[in-house]
Automatic annotation (TrEMBL):
The protein's name in its UniProt record: EAL domain-containing protein
Residues of the EAL domain: 23-277
Length: 279
């Protein structure tokens, strides 16, 4: 038992130092990653809940590191936010997602929307609106085919500036969504002042909806409030058929999750979409 205990301690100790080491490797790897083409985007379908029609896809960042392999975004994005690299990476994501979405319409997949995640730092940097316009123009993508996902943490701080930035983006015809809705900043009054189109209900509520009456109540409340404000709702992380049924009963409008499709590389998504359209 003593031996096992010592082994447990040693492997635990090892894990901790490996984590610290990996953080350093991640930190140092972020700078050259863009030039070395180590980033790519995967696309996860977003569907209407009633008819299952494909309306677009969320672009999700992937990083293939030369020694660490595939590093999940939850691991490196917080580091990139600390170092500021997320601004340059985010610019690349915008450009790449717009180019890909322009391809979809060229391939006859219809007018699909691409949803891009934005870090709060990209707003604070001040050049976001210019980068968004440039990305759309360079790709030849219509503004209404781009949706920007912001988290509630973006809404903390200088809201006057942020409301102005969002209004400018909105005036270009771009759509706006609040991501991970319900997990962050709890003041709902901002919803009246922000020109948002969509709330994405965080997957933690969706996952526990069937077992946990409180989570079902939260989902119901979000859907009803959104409907009252004229906003659409997308449930994230729909993994099971019973989630789908429960969301339908609650009046949620759109869905995304493993139950329908996982995030896929660009080519696989285009094939999936073509298949869906019966092409
Ligand atoms: P998110 O924006 O909430 O993205 C949804 C995450 O849920 C994705 O994880 C997706 O793969 C995962 N997901 C989708 N369906 C299901 C499901 O049915 N079950 C479960 N368990 N998970 C599901 P991913 O790709 O690992 O991304 C994690 C987070 O990293 C994202 O969360 C987002 O906050 C951030 N992220 C990803 N790409 C970008 C990016 O380009 N820029 C920024 N700033 N953040 C990004
Ligand atoms: Ca998102
Ligand atoms: Ca989310
Ligand atoms: Ca999230």
């Amino acid at each position: 038992a003593k031996e096992a205990g010592r082994n447990t301690f040693r492997s635990h100790h090892l894990d901790v130092s490996t984590d610290v080491l990996n953080d350093l490797v991640i930190r140092n790897g972020l700078r050259p990653a863009l030039e070395r083409n180590e980033f790519s985007l995967h696309y996860q379908p977003i569907l209407t809940l009633d008819s299952g029609a494909l309306i677009g896809a969320e672009a999700l960042l992937r990083w293939q590191h030369p020694t660490l392999g595939n590093v999940p975004p939850d691991r490196f994005i917080p580091v990139a936010e600390l170092t500021g690299h997320i601004v340059g990476i985010g610019e690349w994501v915008l450009g790449e997602a717009c180019r890909e979405a322009a391809n979809w319409s060229r391939r006859g997949l219809g007018e699909l929307t691409v949803s891009v995640n934005l870090s709060p730092l990209q707003f604070r940097h001040g050049t976001l609106e210019a980068h968004v316009s440039a990305a759309l123009a360079e790709a030849g993508l219509s503004a209404r085919c781009l949706e920007l996902e912001i988290t509630e943490s973006t809404l903390i701080g200088d809201t006057a500036t942020l409301v102005g930035q969002l209004a400018n983006l909105k005036a270009q015809g771009i759509r706006l969504a609040i991501d991970d809705f319900g997990t962050g900043y709890s003041c709902l009054a901002y919803l009246r002042r922000l020109p948002v189109d969509r709330l994405k209900i965080d997957r933690s509520f969706v996952a526990d909806m069937s077992q946990d009456a409180d989570d079902a109540s939260i989902v119901r409340a979000i859907v009803q409030m959104a409907a009252g404000l004229g906003l659409r709702t997308t449930a994230e992380g729909v993994e099971e058929a019973h989630h789908h049924d429960a969301l339908k009963a609650l009046g949620c409008t759109e869905v995304q999750g493993y139950h329908y499709a996982r995030p896929m590389p660009a080519d696989a998504f285009a094939c999936w979409a073509a298949d869906r359209l019966g092409q």
